[in-house]
Write a structure and sequence with these properties.
Number of strands: 13
Largest sheet: 8 strands, parallel, barrel
Low-confidence stretches: 267-271
Strand content: 15-25%
Number of helices: 11
Shape: globular
Mean pLDDT: 92
Structural class: alpha/beta
Helix content: 25-40%
Distance between the termini: 15 Å
């Protein structure tokens, strides 16, 4: 399977996400469309659009951008609980139909401000049991007619989604991406997801998780095509290795200064204070105890100063350096890459022109 390269589009209420330099109209349709069109022009398949209460609705943003583009594939992050499975299956089938099959879905089960949108808090086991039912039911609604489902969390009777999902080359329905590093999350991924997304861990950690998930898929009697794997990471690219490291260290110094002057010890986590307690996030933060630089060029220092999620670790270097590192992940079995750096528009052009040709060559 050939690898696919996506980006990240920052649907944020406040400007300056991870140092982005766009302020006026930063989340306007025109600005976000420029991102999507630049991705088309510079060779990216599409982009992840994140989710969380207190930011623009992801599915609405994905729909608007799909309407203004021709090949751009939105990877829309959504949450069970915010969406009911039958409502989501119908909405996503409609968008997939209208875009000619360009939709991808990222299922997010991490904690959020659940009470704000009427959801209920559950323990980890309950949360992931619900996610598993959500995935099972959405997939059935996309691929079967007259579905009756009676689970612990969701029920439907004689349900048929219209329009129907059209199977296309390489996919029976929109791919279902999923993240999470806890045992409960891995059981859901191994049984029900299409793509397991990893944060930017070192090669040995990713290799160990891929091996475990493949074994778990067999143990659980996975009924779907083999689980695929993806990497979500910051790619910090400059013209030379020396310039990349000088700029990366300067950026981390600025993060440290902002953290020292901030009343929020983890300013990069934004509207979701629960992220820091997630198992996957903690794995990333713990990497700094092994050193500032792991493997060839995986920079862990950003995690000490507020970097969260994909901003916790960076691959730093020239385009050749970063391409070499990404190819090592590819050798482990990673086929879906979600890259980014800021300023977003500048880096789409730089990495599209300099990094992607090396990865596709």
């Amino acid at each position: 399977m050939s690898s696919e390269f996506l980006w990240y589009i920052p649907n944020q209420t406040d400007p300056g996400h991870r140092g982005d330099d766009t302020v006026d109209g930063h989340n306007s349709l025109d600005t976000l469309t420029r991102h999507a069109l630049a991705l088309e022009e510079h060779g990216f398949t599409g982009a992840l659009i994140g989710t969380g209460w207190g930011r623009p609705d992801t599915f609405t943003v994905a729909t608007a951008l799909a309407a203004r583009t021709t090949t751009f594939e939105p990877l829309a992050a959504i949450r069970p609980g915010y969406w009911r499975p039958a409502n989501f299956a119908a909405a996503s089938a409609t968008l997939d139909h209208l875009t000619g099959g360009r939709l991808r879905i990222n299922i997010v089960s991490g904690k959020d401000d659940l009470a704000a949108y009427g959801d209920a808090e559950g323990d980890q086991a309950d949360r992931y049991a619900r996610t598993r039912e959500f995935l099972q039911l959405v997939r059935r609604l996309w691929t079967e007619e007259n579905v009756t489902f009676r689970g612990e969390h969701f029920r439907v009777e004689n349900s048929t989604v219209a329009p129907r999902i059209v199977p296309r080359e390489g996919r029976r329905h929109p791919k279902l991406y999923f993240g999470g590093a806890s045992s409960a999350a891995e059981h859901v991924a191994a049984a029900e997801a299409d793509v397991q997304l990893f944060w930017g861990e070192p090669l040995d950690g990713v290799a160990e998780r891929i091996e475990r998930l493949r074994a778990l898929s067999d143990q659980l009697g996975r009924e779907h095509p083999p689980l695929e794997f993806g990497l979500r990471i910051t790619t910090f690219v400059r013209d030379t290795t020396e310039q990349a490291w000088a700029d990366a260290e300067a950026a981390v110094a600025q993060m440290a200064a902002r953290q020292a002057n901030s009343t929020n010890p983890h300013p990069a986590e934004g509207a979701n204070p629960h992220r820091r307690n997630a198992v996957g996030q903690q794995r990333l933060l713990d990497l700094a105890t092994r050193g500032d630089v792991l493997d060839d060029n995986l920079y862990t220092a950003p995690g000490r100063y507020g970097g969260g999620g994909a901003a916790t670790t960076w691959l730093v270097g020239s385009a050749e350096d970063v391409a070499k590192s990404l190819r090592k992940y590819e050798d482990l079995g990673i086929t879906h890459f979600v890259l980014s750096d800021t300023p977003y528009l500048r880096e789409i052009e730089r990495q599209g022109n300099e990094l992607l040709p090396l990865l596709r060559g």
